Amino acid sequence: MPLSLQNISLKHLGTEIQNTMHTIRGNKHTPGTGLGYLVEEATQSGEQTPTPDSSTPAGKEPADSPKPAPKSSLPASLPQKTKSQSNTFPFFSEGLVRNRTAQEKVVALEQQVLVLTKELKSQKELVHILHKALEAAQQEKRASSSFLAAAEDKDRLELVRHQVRQIAELGRRVEALEQERDSLAHSVSLREREVQELQEHVQLLMDKNQAKQQVICKLSEKVTQDFTQPPEEPRLPPNPTDRDLLSQEERMEHLKDDMEAYQTQNRFLNSEIHQVTKIWRKVAEKEKALLMKCAYLQARNCQVESKYLAGLRRLQEAKAGECSELLRQLIQEALQGDTGVASADSVELSPVSEYDEYGFLTVPDYEMEDLKLLAKIQALEVRSHHLLELEAVERPLQQRWAALGELAPSAELKQLLRAGVPHEHRPRVWKWLVHRRVQHLHTPGCYQELLSQGRACEHPAARQIELDLNRTFPNNKHFTCPTSSFPDKLRRVLLAFSWQNPTIGYCQGLNRLAAIALLVLEEEESAFWCLVAIVESIMPAEYYSKTLMASQVDQRVLQDLLSEKLPRLMAHLGQHHVNLSLITFNWFLVVFADSLISDILLRVWDAFLYEGTKVVFRYALAIFKYNEEAILQLQDGLEIYQYLRFFTKTICDSRKLMHIAFSDMNPFPMKQLRQLRAAHREQLDAELRKLELLKAQYLERQAPRDDKRPEGGASEDEGEGDA
């Protein structure tokens, strides 16, 4: 083995490699630089530099020179090389090193220590990183070994799952650290804002203090001047010009003093205003926090009350014999608990009012007590969700609508309409939506002409319209109050439409569509054009005809979409022979007017007036998805029908229903809807032609029988006359 390798110490391998690198650098540098560096290094290490043998050639080490220890062999050879190299350059002599002052050597050694300290720190960091990498490699090796040593695939799969769990745990740790970092950054920003406000306040106080000091200094100077200057001897009275000049100067001085006083007062008032503003902000923040807490407590109160009512309903269904009277009493108290309950200062304790913004009873007066309970539970849950979402969802939505400005078709408007229009903006938005639909039909004065035509001649559908007026929304105070003007408005709107569209005239269900339009728009003519837009523009042709052909087609389309989107539910309903058309036909005919509460219903209409009938399909599917699990638990056809009669009363979360309709039901292309409608329309036409053919055949067979009927038989009229 070469002697140089024998002398290297494995214990201090890093030091030996570093000294070797310094030697290589010294050979490449200029002689003066290398000499100074090696002398400094030798001085730092505290070792004596051996004198090279004269027989050794310049720039080479003696091959057989004795080494006292492997650790110090390499540093000892460095001065020999340096001196050999210095002999080859006559410009630098050994006296240059001896003449250097001790201070320069100390400075050089300190710099060397700093360099070596930095290098040592970097080497330690590198060793730490290598240790981490080695530990990771060992763990990976152990995992791979255990994976390869596993006898069965189950064990290997468990090892892979363990790795996945470790990865997920690390991901959660990273997310937690990121959240902690964000919270710390937020707190730092709050602290910086507070510091900035305090600095501004200190600056204002300093300005005010400085202004006061200036005034004090001027007053002190004036007083000192008055004391130091003796009163002058009386002089001759000045002439009028000098008197005017003096009076102007005095006036200017007074004005300057007044200006300084006003400036000081202004600074003081500004500081006071700043303090009052800070106090007002704090009070506003406290008020907002208290309002949020109050809303949360009211929401919790609604949830507790709804759970209490749900518990009473379940006990009632269980038919506990001895407790039936007690349950009936508790239910009556729960249903009438918020009527007449008020504090001394007339503050409502119950957050659920009797009527909503559009006059609908929040708890309708159903004949069945079970439906009353469901309606009360639904009202409480809806109010609870509204209170909880007020700050996070509803208020930002109102601000976006307030900042929207002029309406124009856009993706943003579409998303806002799907989220729902606030009560104060809904009339304006609906008028714009209706105008887009009927602008090709609208003519000035058309509505008044139709009304005058109705006054001149009675329409054949007037009797049926009069009968339906009393059946329109019996749970709405605007249509049940004897002094309300809404029934008369509704009558005129329906008569005008029957004259405007003689093909349809009047169809049951149009009264509910026109009533919803009246409740929102309030103006007769606007409600009339809204009804025209729905019947003649949004809905397909023949939707409200005598045969209701398009309505039947949509029911078949809905069956196909339910089979595609909710196959488990349709299989369950098919197993129990449930015909959904008995439930959903009226949904489509009146756009959920009889099925959903007003808060959810009007959100459906917001999107329906903009996007069309596709919204009706989306919400119909969403209603079944919302209650899918509850329906799947029912195992009897009659029980399913009874549940479907009122299951829309269990929908309380409008945001959840909207998310299902516009997210979970995707994709929902309009092209697919048109194709399904065309296919089912063709199929229904074929069925109707077949029925017409069977009818004609029956009439042909019946005609000869009528001719052969005996003449001697007594008719029913004759029999009655004899009696």
Description:
This protein is mainly α and 723 residues long. Among the domains are: 3-100, no CATH class; 420-536, Orthogonal Bundle (Helicase, Ruva Protein, domain 3), CATH 1.10.8; 539-701, Ypt/Rab-GAP domain of gyp1p, domain 3 (Cyclin A, domain 1), CATH 1.10.472.80. The chain contains 29 helices and no strands. Helix 13 (426-438) packs across helix 19 (524-538). The chain is extended. Residues 1-11, 28-97, 338-350 and 713-723 have low confidence and may be disordered.
Residues in β-strands, percent: under 5%
CATH architecture of one domain: Orthogonal Bundle
Tally of extended strands? 0
Q: Termini, distance in Å?
A: 145 Å
> How large is the radius of gyration?
48 Å
CATH topology heading of one domain: Cyclin A, domain 1
H/E topology pattern? HHHHHHHHHHHHHHHHHHHHHHHHHHHHH
Q: Strand count, sense and closure of the main sheet?
A: none
Tell me, rounded to a whole number, the average pLDDT. 78
Question: What is the percent of helical residues?
Answer: over 70%
Low-confidence stretches: 1-11, 28-97, 338-350, 713-723
The structural class is: mainly alpha
